[in-house]
Design goal:
Keywords: Membrane, Transmembrane, Transmembrane helix
Strand content: 15-25%
Radius of gyration: 27 Å
Strand order of the largest sheet: 7-6-1-2-9-3-8-5-4-10
Shape: elongated
Oligomer: single chain
Organism: Candidatus Carbonibacillus altaicus
Protein name: Sporulation sigma-E factor processing peptidase (SpoIIGA)
Pfam family, one: Peptidase_U4
InterPro entries: SpoIIGA
Number of strands: 10
Largest sheet: 10 strands, mixed
């Protein structure tokens, strides 16, 4: 008896599977992607179906063909421009594919054969599906719904160790500058018990934004001056900037002390869940001399209340209110 293949169902099944895996890749990679590119990549992903009937496409099922097809799929869907984007994109695509296939295999692992109903088919799974069939399509759709609604939000927000980065802009006396910040739920600093959280930023990132007397004041303050007014270069600078100054006690792993903080005119920040940038007025930013150990280009730790829904990840050396 010859094998019957329902190409329309196989194509639809592969299309939905590709759609979900590519969406999952973009989600894990935090890569913005248009609906058009997502659909185009899914159509390309389902094109492997024709390798079953078109002789010159048999090469898609060889190791070299699979790798080449993966790179083509990555290029069409995400359009990576640098080597690092190719590496990260390929890794996330393989991870998304492995998670999908792994869970599907796990859920279809323990079903017995049905020799009386389908003597030529050997099936394994909790439900005995004959592949390819309408049941295959329904099973793929069910797995997609379960993964997208239940499994991956938990994996990403509870077990993910990568940073959650946002771009934000500080405004000071007519000057403005944009930075990259890391949303840190371990940061519980605030001013005077108020709900507004305090961000931390490296002094080096503010050198071309703040006046010279202020940057020198920060260095002198952390050098251990006994009197706060002595950290300012001139009495005039104290009179001008003193009203913006805040001193914030903190406790971190292995150290504690007082942070030199300033109240900025305006902060604009936009997280991936925000459609438009949020405008925060009168927010306090503590200035520190040390690095946060989060890699080059990360200048600040952002409190969770600065971004919508307060999502983020906790660092191991977060700053906390000293009690």
């Amino acid at each position: 008896m010859g094998e019957v293949i329902y190409l329309d169902l196989v194509f639809l099944n592969d299309f939905l599977t590709s759609l979900f895996i590519l969406w999952m890749t973009a989600f894990l990679w935090r890569r913005r992607i248009t609906v058009g590119r997502l659909l185009l990549g899914s159509l390309l992903g389902s094109a492997g179906t024709f390798g079953l009937i078109v002789p010159f496409l048999y090469g898609l099922y060889t190791p070299l063909g699979k790798i080449s097809f993966l790179l083509l799929l990555l290029a069409v869907t995400f359009f990576p421009r640098t080597l690092s984007e190719w590496v990260y994109g390929g890794a996330y695509l393989l991870l998304a594919n492995a998670l999908y296939v792994g869970l599907t295999f796990f859920l279809t692992l323990f079903t017995e054969r049905l020799p009386d109903v389908f003597p030529e088919q050997v099936t394994t799974g909790l439900v005995a599906f004959v592949s390819p069939s309408l049941w295959t399509f329904l099973w793929a759709f069910l797995v997609m719904v379960v993964l997208s609604r239940l499994v991956f939000p938990v994996l990403v927000w509870r077990f993910r160790k990568e940073s959650f980065y946002v771009r934000f802009t500080l405004f000071w006396e007519g000057a403005e500058k944009t930075f990259t910040g890391y949303v840190d739920t371990g940061n519980t600093l605030n001013v005077g018990g108020r709900a507004d959280g305090v961000a931390l930023i490296r002094l080096e990132a503010l050198l071309d934004m703040l006046p010279e007397d202020l940057t020198r004041a920060v260095r002198l303050f952390y050098a251990g001056k006994d009197k706060l007014t002595e950290t300012f270069v001139t009495p005039r600078s104290w009179e001008k900037w003193g009203r913006r100054l805040r001193l914030i006690p903190y406790r971190a792993i292995g150290k504690e002390g007082i942070l030199f903080a300033l109240r900025f005119d305006l902060v604009t920040i936009r997280s991936p869940s925000d459609r438009v940038a949020r405008r925060l007025t009168g927010r306090t930013v503590a200035i520190v001399l040390d690095d946060f150990g989060l890699g080059e280009g990360v200048d600040a730790l952002i409190p969770p209340d600065w971004v919508q829904e307060g999502k983020g990840a906790s660092t191991l050396s977060g700053y906390h209110i000293s009690t």
